[in-house]
Amino acid sequence: MERIYEKDSGVRRATARVLGCRAADGGSEVELDRTIFYPGGGGQPEDRGTVGGFPVLGFRRLESGEVVHLLPQPVEGEVELVLDWPRRYDHMQQHTGQHLITVTASAEFGLKTIAFHIGDELCDIEFDAPKVGRDVLDRIELRVNERIGEGRAVRITTAALDAVERGEVRSRLLPHHLDGPLRIVEIDGLDRNTCGGTHVADVAELRQVKLLHTEKLSRGTRVYYVAGQRVLRRLATLLERQDALTAALQCGPDQHMTVLGSLLARAKDSEKTARQLLGELGRVAAEALVREPGPAVFLHRPDGDAEFLRAVASVVSEKRPDLVAILVAGQAESTGRAGHFAVVGPAEKVADLGPRVMALLAGKGGGRGTLFQGKTGSLERLEEVRQIVVRGS
Ligand SMILES: [Zn+2]
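^ thats the input. predicted complex w/ zinc ion below
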């Protein structure tokens, strides 16, 4: 099969002859005498488009190295191939961007590329260094964009198989079955690299490259980046997010971090105050409980929390060690926050009632001696818990 994209990445339409077509999982596998579709590999995603008017669903590489196209229906004779050009051109920009970043990072900063990947939103390159600081990223980015401004031709050439060993070309990974000459992607005066993917014809077509954040990996550092039209798309996404923050925080972008910082500090203070108040509330509620005459009491506080229950339990233990108290905090409706429960009283009663209450509340927890406590799973059977106290068993 003639791979037209290998010689000319700009071909968007072509006709081809169907050499074979057989039923396959999800449609028909079609063998063509020539193709304009890149089947994916080396970090670059596969192309999309149509063959004979049917969408290309995917590709499968046969053991022989040949690639078949997966279509929803069978085709025969002469077929027209139409490439999803915007998707492909985006991949060409991202991929050529990788070549430029890789050669710049390697030649000027000693960073070796070990992997590369074009994602739906962001692309990434993995370097063999444990850390790549923002200062280094900024310097690579500056050099890469200077080179884009210089406008250097990107050419496809060939080299003998041993050119890699002789250090004449750069190569990350070569297929095992390769026997012919190597396909070389050359950036004029800068880089010669073995590659099977698709690239723009001049680095000027990248327009811009932006290096984003990094991620630590066990074997190195992943650097995210965008090239070409993705730079503007990324900027638009970030501006949209900034506008949403401006509306939510009711202040301009230069004030976002200040306002957010004071909001977070206030939220932390409020939480602390709420915890203290709930603790005090617990002690007040406990004072009422310990005055009740019966041998057992039940308390459910929807807005209570674990702190509240601990406060109640500690007052009950101290003032009425003979009293059995079954305590529940939390909303019956799911609010996303777990509820809590506690059973406090004489050890033998707690040993019996604790697990029963936990089972009725579908909870998790445990305890020893005079206190059994945990989180609730559901308050659906709360009434049955209350009945334990009413019935006195
Ligand atoms: Zn390439």
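The chain has three domains: 2-83, 88-241, 271-391.
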